[in-house]
Amino acid sequence: MNQTLSNGAVYKKVLGFSIRRLVFSIIFMAMIAGLSYGGFLLGKKLFHFTGAPLVGMGVGAVIAIVLVAIIAHFFMYVIKAGQIAVIMKAVTEDKIPDNPWQTGKTMVKERFGTVALYYAATSIIKGIFGEIGHAITKIGEAIGGDSGSAIGSAISIVINTIVNYLCDCCLGWVFYRKDQNAFKATCEGAVTFFKHGKTFLKNMGRVFGIGLASLIVIGGAFFGIFYLVALQFPHYIQVLAIEIRKLSEGTEPNKVINILSNETALTIAIAAVGALIIWSIIHSTFVKPFVLVGVLRNYMNTAIENIPAPSEFDILEKNSKKFRKYKNEHASDLQ
After folding, report:
1. Is residue 48 helix, strand or coil?
2. End-to-end CA distance of the chain, in Å?
3. Torsion of CA 151, 153, 155, 156, to 10 degrees
4. Contact (Cβ atoms closer than 8 angstroms) between residue 163 and residue 132
5. What are phi and psi of 320, to 5 degrees?
6. What is the pLDDT of residue 146?
7. CA nearest 164: which of 318, 327, 295?
């Protein structure tokens, strides 16, 4: 396809989705932090058994995470799917909708109708592609035992990063093939990868390069910020370290607990966790969509020129045991 619209131009036009995701992420973080802190104070005030503040903090965090999961399940999917739909439309039609946000919402509603149908489709996509990472891990375990498992797990992390992009690309293809049912379009998208995987893997150097750079720059910056902020609250760090020590009394020695009971180490750990959380949010919200534009453009160009025939779906049975299950459940959709 002849295209004049640059990846940067597409990315700028879909930033509205990223900003909405950021707003939700901030709200979610505030909920988790607020309820965790509230639980810590209530545990400290109302109960007097060993580790009560930590238990209260844990209960508050669990409640917050459940609430966040419910809200995200019903609202965040529209933002993510809508952004992918608009990127797909831009790279295949070489033009950007006048109102990307409204266009994305409409495309998601027209394609899936309900949240249940969306998650049914995405679970099939992840089920098919997710087996790649699991297979690599098992190979490592079979070859080298525990050390092989570690190697396999490390490779699996890399593979899973690729799989996440492939899932997004496959979802883009499902939007593109709007006249096909979602399951059949998903199969076409998966077959496209297995037939032309080497073409897509050429983008992975860029994926990991940008990912590593964002981790160093963004993660490093926020680690410094969180560390300096944590230093301003030595009393709370001291109280938390004491509670960790109390909680470990009378139990088997644990290296992690021993480390975290040290105030300096605890401060570093809090800063590191906070930095990773913020990096993850910023990377997935702003950096990943930028990378995805180029990856999805490459994927769509290849897929459109090589639309698989139903007879080629057999390749999925060779690469995915779960596909056999899905095939039996959706046999009528493949006609």
Report:
1. coil
2. 29
3. 160
4. yes
5. -145, 115
6. 54
7. 295
Distance in angstroms (rounded) separating the CA atoms of residues 248 and 98: 59
Q: Is the dihedral of CA 52, 55, 56, 57 positive or negative?
A: positive
Q: What is the C-alpha separation between 320 and 266, in angstroms, rounded?
A: 43
pLDDT tens digits along 301-333: 999 998 988 888 888 877 777 777 787 777 776
Residue 99 per-residue DSSP state: S
Phi, psi of 101 (to 5 degrees): -65, -50
- Other Cβ atoms less than 10 A from the Cβ of 124: the count is 23
Alpha-carbon distance of 86 to 111, in angstroms, equals 13
Residue 35: count other Cβ atoms within 10 Å of its Cβ. 20
- Unique residue bearing structure tokens 């076409």: 188
Report the 10 Å Cβ neighbour count for 289. Answer: 22
Cα Rg for the chain, rounded, in angstroms? 23
Rounding to the nearest 10 degrees, give the CA dihedral for residues 284, 287, 290, 295.
-70
Give which of 134, 121, 125 is closest to 191, Cα–Cα.
125
Task: Identify the segments of the chain with pLDDT beneath 50.
Answer: 144
Compute the distance between CA of residue 326 and CA of residue 312 in angstroms, rounded to an integer. Answer: 16
Nearest to 290 by CA among 83, 73, 129, 93: 83
This prediction has a pTM of 0.84
What is the number of residues in the chain?
Answer: 335
| Sequence-ordered list of residues with C-beta below 8 angstroms from that of 22, at least 6 positions apart, any chain | 281, 285, 286
Tokens of residue 182, six digits:
């979602």
For residues 260 and 238, the answer to whether their CB atoms sit within 8 Å is no
CB-CB contact of 102 with 82 (8 Å): no
Query: CA nearest 263: which of 231, 241, 232, 235?
Result: 241
For position 21, what pLDDT does the model report? 94
- If we measure between CA atoms, which residue out of 21, 9, 18 comes closest to residue 72? 21
Name the nearest CA neighbour of 125 among 329, 334, 327, 323: 323
SS3 177: coil
How far is Cα 268 from Cα 218, in angstroms, rounded to an integer?
17
